[in-house]
Design a protein that fits this description.
This protein is an all-alpha fold. The chain has a single domain (4-137), classed as Four Helix Bundle (Hemerythrin (Met), subunit A), CATH 1.20.120.450. It is 53% helix and 0% strand. It has 6 helices and no strands. The protein starts with a helix and ends in an 11-residue tail after the last helix.
Amino acid sequence: MATQTSDLLAAATPRTVSVVQAITDDQLDLPTPCREYAVRDLLNHLYAVVVNFQALAARKPVNWADKPDYLAEGWRDRFGVQARQLVEAWSDPASEEGVSPGMGLPQSVVGGMALLDLTVHGWDLAVATGQQYEPAPEVLPALHELTGQLGPQARQMGVFAEPVAVDAALPDLPRLLALTGRDPGWPETS
C-alpha cells in the first residue's frame, strides 16, 4: 500500500540519503545553516527524526530528549535503511488517520513534518558540505502549504526562525527555506 505521505517521502528520501552518504568524516565539524548545529549534530538530529517518525506513524510514544549518537560504524548505510523504513511506516493508510497522541496534531501533518525535515535538512547538509541538492519537485507544494500552516507556532516554539525576505520570483526551494528562517544564499551571505 501507499499513502500520500509515503509517496512524498519516497520521492524525497533518496535525495537526502545521497547527501548523507557522501558526507566525509572530515566534514562532521563544519557549520550548517542551522546555527546551533555542526554537521555532526544535524546528522544526529536528522537520524532521530527518521527513527522517531517511524514510531509516530504507528502512534507509538517517542522521547525527543534521548540524544543517542547515531554516527557509529556504518552510520551512512544505516541511515539509508532507516529512511526506507520511514517510508514504509507511513505507507500504512492508518498512519494518516486521526490525531497523533504524542504530538496533538493530525497524523497527516505529523507525516508532513518528517518530509519537511528530510527536505530542508537535506539542503542544510548539502550546502554545509559543498554538495548539490535538488529536492523532489513534487514535495515542494505540500511543504509550502505545511510551512505556512505551522509557521507561526513553529516560530513561537523556536523551531523556525523569522522568515527571511526573498524575491517572490525565486524558485520554490529558496522560498521554502526563507519561510523556515533560512537564508537561501548561505554561506555566501552569512
